[in-house]
Write a structure and sequence with these properties.
This is 2634_t:CDS:1. By secondary structure, the chain is an alpha+beta fold. It is built from 8 helices and 10 strands. The chain is globular. It binds zinc ion (2 copies).
């Protein structure tokens, strides 16, 4: 199906195509991936495989973001230590779903900066690791091949990857919903694609609830995108949500 683009403002078209995509099969695993840094990163050999951190420190992770005007999406290699960090809690709650890809997202500097500044304010005490299920309206296989040219207006996967969670795109007024349990978010993973998209998002909030509802964009920062397929058992779980 050809996406309809006529109703889209030009600005949004540009934004959606602005995702820089990288595979993380590294030739130099064990070296910090920030270009200006020569430090070694933490590594671990498990079953003869070298597991590695992508950056030497959290500092390098954020410094790299300072250069970004578009989202940097890295398709994680299973030996990148972030892969297990994201996959394990997800699989614990949704053991029968099959993870097809995990992308580490580093949002553009303007988005990340607003979030970090918000975090430093005293009103908001804690950052919560939450999930956000959304729609895939384009061809997810193309997306994973690095062709992020989706121009479908309400495609949640591409819209959030490029611009973060935006309350103006919410289907629930200006409210954005995040769940601690991915089983809850599963019912929001819509679209006809057999692939489903769920974001792991940092959400700043005073409360520590199973569900967090926020209206300000800067309270949220997408960190990873999980693309997965579902089994019958998953669908059964959805009925209970
Ligand atoms: Zn470094
Ligand atoms: Zn899309």
């Amino acid at each position: 199906m050809k996406p309809s683009t006529s109703s889209l403002p030009q600005q949004q078209l540009n934004d959606l195509s602005k995702i820089s995509f990288q595979k993380s099969k590294l030739k130099n695993a064990g070296q910090c991936q920030r270009r200006e840094c020569n430090n070694k990163t933490q590594t671990q050999t498990i079953n003869f495989k070298l597991k590695y951190e992508y950056y030497c420190s959290e500092d390098c992770y954020w410094k790299d973001i300072e250069q970004l005007t578009t989202t940097k999406a890295v398709l994680l290699d299973k030996n990148d230590m972030d892969y297990d960090r994201v996959a394990k809690p997800f699989k614990e709650k949704l053991p029968k779903s099959k993870i097809r890809a995990i992308l580490r997202l580093q949002m553009p500097h303007s988005i990340s900066k607003a979030h970090r500044e918000c975090k430093q304010k005293n009103d908001y005490k804690a950052t919560h690791k939450m999930y956000h299920g959304t729609s895939i309206l384009c061809n997810a296989a193309n997306f994973l091949k690095g062709k992020q040219d989706c121009t479908i207006e309400n495609c949640g996967m591409c819209g959030i990857t490029a611009q973060g969670n935006q309350s103006s795109f919410s289907h629930y007024g200006t409210k954005m919903w995040f769940a601690k349990n991915p089983q809850t978010s599963l019912s929001y993973c819509s679209g006809k694609s057999k692939f489903k998209a769920m974001f792991a998002v940092d959400v700043i909030a005073r409360d520590d609830n199973e569900i967090l509802i926020v209206t300000k964009n800067e309270l949220t920062l997408p960190r990873y995108l999980i693309i997965f397929t579902r089994t019958k058992w998953d669908r059964y779980l959805t009925c209970w949500c």
